[in-house]
Design a protein that fits this description.
The complex is a heterodimer. Chain A is α/β, with parallel strands linked by helices. Helix content of chain A is 42%, strand content 31%. In chain A, strands 1, 2, 3, 4, 5 and 6 form a six-stranded mixed beta sheet that branches. In chain A, α1 runs parallel beside α2. In chain B, α1 runs antiparallel to α2 and α2 runs antiparallel to α3. Classes of the chains: A alpha/beta, B alpha+beta.
Chain lengths: 110, 148
């Protein structure tokens, strides 16, 4: 897994490449929560290059979404591959998470 | 393509997930399956394995988890055996996917994925061991035939 992180107009964008599984999700969680501790409240997860996710990766996304809701922040996911989209649908998360088709729409809605 | 059989000896350490990923990669080069099926097989195996490692044992000792993958032209058969506490995952309750997000937990989600992506799930408890046997069709045509 590789994480590319940038800030665009006050929005912290995480682009995740590869696999978010039981062995890599904790590193992703650490990076995301470091941004929250730095005061970031608007997050985008760009999942264009994310090939694989398991319940461990989904746990981080659910936790982040819950915590940001409590902090009155916002998180948008975008550009999900078919497999990742299917896993979110089966998890029943399509109703909880704000998912957009591209980064422009994600920036507009975060 | 002939039959492919892989036997993987695992311990109850999350790091051994790498051994599973390598085996699935080896399998995918020997069989003709789509990227989607490959990811689904990885997901089934990761969730089964992490569930046993994280929740299967009442002690801190090292345990053996035996995994075998056998594949023919149509389907993959997964067999996993462990000496952990009795757990029939086939009768585990599905998570409530419609509740409010504040009440939503990820617990049970892994098993939910296994049941969703496997085409047949069997569980046995024999001689103090959990034995899980799953079947996954690897061609979309075969899956469609079964669904219809």
């Amino acid at each position: 897994m590789e994480i590319f992180q940038e800030n665009n107009n006050g929005v912290e964008i995480f682009s995740v490449k590869g696999s978010l599984d039981s062995n890599t999700s904790s590193e992703f969680e650490t990076r995301v929560y470091a941004a929250l501790e730095n005061g970031q409240r608007k997050l985008i997860f760009n999942l264009e290059d994310l090939d694989y996710i398991s319940s461990a990766g989904i746990r981080v996304m659910l936790k982040t979404t819950k915590d940001l809701k409590r902090m009155e922040g916002n998180i948008v996911l975008c550009t999900l591959q078919d497999y990742v989209r299917e896993v979110f649908d089966i998890a029943g998360f399509d109703g909880y998470l704000n998912i957009e088709n591209n980064i422009t729409a994600a920036m507009d809605n975060v | 393509m002939g039959k492919v059989n892989l036997s993987i000896k695992l311990k109850n350490h999350l790091n051994d997930l790498d051994k599973i990923k390598k085996a699935v990669l080896k399998l995918s080069t020997a069989i003709d399956c789509t990227k989607q099926k490959f990811q689904e097989i990885n997901l089934i195996l990761e969730e089964l394995f992490t569930n046993v490692v994280c929740h299967g044992f009442n002690d801190d000792k090292e345990h053996d988890i035996d995994l075998s993958l056998s594949c023919d032209e149509k389907s993959l058969t997964i067999r996993m055996e462990d000496d952990g506490k009795s757990f029939d995952f086939t009768s585990a309750a599905a998570p409530d996917t419609k509740c409010a997000i504040e009440k939503r937990f990820v617990g049970g989600l892994g098993i939910h994925f296994v049941k969703y992506f496997a085409d047949d799930c069997q569980y046995y408890r024999k001689k103090g061991k959990n034995i899980i046997v799953l079947k996954k069709y690897i061609t979309d045509d075969e899956h469609a035939d079964v669904e219809s």
